[in-house]
Amino acid sequence: MSGERGAIEIVGLVKRFGDVTAVDQLDLSVRAGEFICLLGPSGCGKTTTLRMLAGFEFPDSGSIVISGRSMGDLPPHRREVNTVFQAYALFPHMTVAENIAYGLRQRRTSKQEISRRVGEALEMVRMSAMAARRPRQLSGGQQQRVALARALVNAPSVLLLDEPLAALDRKLSEEMQIELKLMQTELGITFVFVTHDQGEALSMSDRIAVMRDGKIEQLADPFTVYDSPASVFVASFIGQQNFFHGTVGDGRTVNTPDGVFSAGRGPDPHPGRGTKGLVAVRPELITLTDDTPDRATRPANVVSGTLASVAHLGDVIQYVVRVVGHEVIVRAPRSNAPRLQPGTSVQCSWSVGDTHLFEAEPSAAVPP
Q1: Between the chain's N and C termini, which has fewer beta carbons within 10 Å?
Q2: Phi, psi for 336 (deg, rounded to 5)
């Protein structure tokens, strides 16, 4: 795999800035033509990793191999990679076509070849009609398309994207997520996408590398990362979770102030009896009623509380239920969401199979 065009092999990568270790013994294999996302909070090392792939930073130790070639201390212009930045970095005095052609001109490509490849790039990002405009005459989404075209016109084996959607409004960002994934699928180029936005990562990636403190906490496809988080940190960072803290009992149970909850998922072997632990369940997997569930059919996990608020989130209704010492978030599709008013006594119930057991971590990243 490592010799294929666009394949990436990172082994033991370390980068320090003074006393701070930004990337710590990181290993990562990226398949040729894969869309992989480096996801994590600020300071987790994702952008530093991207900059080392691009050649803007060099590792203190470890190796990077792209398309079977060791990067060593190769400068950016000698690597088969291009980078799209959050700020786009377009030249304001140049037209759209001139911006896209800039890299080709630097490589002394013939005028005929430049014209052909710029035309193809403009067509690719649907900007042919705006070739003569300057960046100030474009919207944010149009500027991003120009930045993409400028990066792709050089036919890189790997495209690096450093939070390119961060400056866009939500609707435009969602539209660009669809376009980026379609474009990557059609081109077959390896995309390495850096973001702190879980929605971007889940919607576009073939695999997600969730990073924390310079290391990869979990590397898996979006379904696995969302449905089977490898740690409390991943569970809390990806999507919303309801956590119930307590003490591990027999089997996969946790004794909490809200009751005893059973978990169908968790580490094997599970944390020992008496260990501090917690169970987690997604808001959309909880059923909310104002009646006590029938004993014959009720799930094993039930907690009672008072409905504190109801919020309309488009096609989803979100409920906040106040239980002992904290709140439980419940989400239901608008089509079958219960019509309940704040102040109502309610029951939250969910299945054992939807419940994750974790050993408690001594970390500020773990929600209360």
Answers
A1: C
A2: -135, 25
Crossing angle of helices 140-152 and 111-124, rounded to 10°: 130
Residue 59's closest CA among 8, 25, 9?
Answer: 25
**Nearest 10 degrees: CA dihedral of 255, 259, 260, 266?**
-80
Return phi, psi of residue 87, to 5°. Answer: -85, 0
pLDDT given for residue 294 in this prediction? 62
The conformation of residue 10, written as its DSSP 8-state character, comes to E
Residue ranges in the chain assigned as alpha helix (H): 46-54, 96-106, 111-124, 140-152, 170-187, 198-204, 222-227, 232-237
Predicted local distance difference test score (pLDDT) of residue 148: 85
**Token pair 């294929």 in the structure block, residue:** 4
Per residue in 258-296, pLDDT tens?
A: 999 999 988 776 778 888 999 999 999 999 998 766 655
In this prediction, residue 104 carries a pLDDT of: 86
Of 67, 136, 60, the closest CA to residue 96 belongs to: 136
Tens of pLDDT along 312-334? Answer: 998 999 999 999 889 999 999 99
What is the chain's alpha carbon radius of gyration, rounded to the nearest angstrom?
24
The candidate with the shortest Cα–Cα distance to 356, out of 215, 207, 198, 226, is 226
> For residue 260, what are the β-bridge partners?
255
pLDDT given for residue 298 in this prediction: 62
Residue 132 vs residues 43, 97, 110: alpha-carbon distances, Å: 40, 7, 20
| In contact, 188 and 33? CB cutoff 8 Å | yes
pLDDT band of 364, cuts 50, 70, 90: very low
- CB environment 54-90: b (16+ within 10 A), e (fewer): bbebebeebebbbbeeebeeeeeeebbbbbbebebeb
Q: State residue 127's pLDDT score.
A: 86
What is the identity of the amino acid at 349? S
Q: Are 320 and 362 in contact (CB under 8 A)?
A: no
Task: Choose the weakest-confidence range: 145-154, 210-219, 268-277.
Answer: 268-277
For tokens 């978990």, the residue is: 263
Separation of alpha carbons 80 and 87, rounded Å: 22
Q: What is the DSSP string of 45-105?
A: SHHHHHHHHHTSS--SEEEEEETTEE-TT--GGGSSEEEE-TT----TTS-HHHHHHHHHH
